[in-house]
Structures are given as C-alpha cells and as structure tokens.
Amino acid sequence: MLWPFNRFRKTRAAPPGTIEIIYGMIVTQAREPLFYRDLGVPDTVSGRFDLLLMHLWLVLQRLKSAEAGSDLSQALFDRFCADMDDNLREMGVGDLAVPKRMQAFGEAFYGRTAAYDLALTDSHEALAHAFCRNILNGESIDKARELATYARRAITELARIDTAVLRGGAWRFPIPLTADPTA
What we know:
Layout: H1 18-30, H2 33-37, H3 45-63, H4 69-90, H5 98-122, H6 124-134, H7 141-159, H8 163-168
Helix pairs in contact: 1-3, 1-4, 3-4, 3-5, 3-7, 4-5, 5-6, 6-7
C-alpha cells in the first residue's frame, strides 16, 4: 500500500554521494593547471571561481536533456552554494558579510550562465567573447577561442554520455585541447 504522503517526499536525483562525486569532478577539472598555464585563465580566486562556474555550466547544460535533470541540477547548484559559503568562512569572511557575498556569487552565476547560454546559441565567436569578458578579464580573444572550443567539445562529449552513467557520476571531462597526451 502506498501512503498518501509519499507524493510529498523528495525524489532522489542521484544515488547517495553522487552529488559529491560530480561536484568534485567539476572542482577538479576547474583546477586543471592547463587552463591557467596554457589558456590564460588568471590563477587567482576570481579566475578559479570563473572556471568553476564554466564547468558547472557545462554539466548543467547536459542535465537540461536528462530525465530528472532538474533535480540533479538543483542539487549541484545547492552543493556549489554550500561550497562557496564554506570557502568564504575559511577565508575569514564574517557571518554578517556572508549573505551579501553569497548574493554576489548567485548574481555572478546567473549572469554568466545566461551569457553563456545566449552565446552558445549564437556562434563560436560569441561564446569566445563571453569567455574572454568573464573568465579572461577581457584579455586574449585567441585564448578565449580555445576555451570556447574546449567548452563545445565538452558539451558534445557530455551529450554522448548515457543519462544513467551521467547521474551515477561515472564519467570524466575531456582533456583540454592544449594537453600533450604523451605527458
């Protein structure tokens, strides 16, 4: 017999621990030295934040077409917010300032993802300009084009992943194009 309140229970977006696995993969990829060394991403708190947002956006792009993707997307966004809150507190930001900083993170997330979504539907060059402006501080459109090529490749590869595999966290991001596969 089904209890009448079962419809109010939250459905699981993914197996326990999967959100941590997927978010960990996003963070790990955003820390890949090639982005900083070869693609011109500033190795600063802001640069790392922007690269983290880009990788979160890449995964959220894929989840738009996945069954129960909105639940998983929300869980990933919630994990991102918890991570940002934890990082602020570790950096010594006081309790009264955290909400204001979190609001700024939210605005950055929504602003950048909206710009990336729009640019993605426009052209490769538009995506490169969005990355140049938001990740590379307006410097090096050539490096931004390489980032856009990487992002499009990641979107293509993520689209090929079966939804169950995606939700299970058993996948990897592509290696940035500038990587030497023999290294």
